[in-house]
Specification:
The chain contains 5 helices and 12 strands. It is an alpha/beta fold. The strands form 3 sheets. An 8-stranded mixed sheet has the order 1-4-7-8-9-10-11-12. About 5% of the residues have low confidence.
């Protein structure tokens, strides 16, 4: 069994890389999207230009991806959304896995995290890139119905060699995880919703998820909890049995 606290910070990635920004809402978790709030907050306003909307996805500059640390690829979008052509997804993968500088190939030691609410489209892309070093591919679900649907979609024709994970954040209802043995994910992240309009998340929901993960020897990361109506990220304020932030990679690599 891994140590319960491997990663003391609530944010489990070191850097973010967004070749695309923007998204279309697809489920209740999108109602209070933090990415939308960030875009509106940090984009200059003017009388001539309307505020940006996450319903207007757009490509950003061709900034080189990080080659070290834990990198969340596309935390301001869904890289597997229907607005991203499959060829563009292949180009994104190619830029990560065949990284070159002016003097030739550059070693890429980063660990990349991919996450989607559209697992069918993710699988379409992964059929061409079934063996990906240093990468984890996963889906997000906020309630039981969406977990069952997306888990089913993701399990269909999933490449056997990929490392995959599940994000249950924001957790908006109880979820009974169903996995074991070879069907188990490499990792599970769980947490309450954040922001001024957050919806409640019961401690019991999180506790049940942690219990199932520990029983199946699946690393689990409790990101944040709803305690007395507040979103708490300080792990020292968590109930003792939920002070657990495991990661599926070696910390410090």
């Amino acid at each position: 069994m891994r140590n319960l606290i491997e990663w003391p910070r609530a944010k489990y990635w070191d850097k973010a890389w967004n070749p695309i920004v923007g998204c279309y809402p697809v489920s209740p978790a999108c109602d209070n999207c933090y990415a939308c709030a960030m875009i509106r907050r940090f984009t200059p306003r003017s009388n001539s230009k309307p505020l940006p909307s996450l319903t207007l996805p757009h490509f950003t500059s061709r900034k080189k991806p990080p080659t070290k640390g834990v990198v969340f690829a596309g935390n301001m979008t869904d890289l597997f959304g229907e607005w991203v052509p499959i060829r563009q997804q292949f180009e994104i993968f190619s830029r990560l896995w065949h990284f070159k500088g002016r003097s030739g190939p550059i070693p890429n030691d980063a660990t990349y995290l991919f996450l989607t609410k559209r697992p069918k489209r993710m699988l379409e892309a992964l059929r061409e890139y079934a063996e990906m070093p240093h990468a984890f591919f996963g889906f997000t679900a906020e309630n039981e119905d969406l977990y069952l649907t997306r888990n089913f979609d993701f399990s269909q024709n999933r490449p056997s060699k990929i490392r995959w994970w599940i994000s249950l954040e924001p957790l908006l209802g109880p979820i009974e995880l169903m996995f074991g043995g070879s069907s188990s994910p490499s990792w599970v992240v769980v947490g309450c919703e954040s922001g001024p309009y957050r919806r409640p998340c019961r401690i019991e929901w999180v506790r049940d998820i942690v219990r199932i993960c520990l029983r199946a020897s699946v690393p689990v990361f409790v990101k944040q909890l709803d305690i007395d109506g507040k979103c708490v990220t300080d792990i020292n304020k968590f109930p003792e049995d939920l002070r657990i932030r495991q990661v599926p990679w070696r910390v410090g690599e």
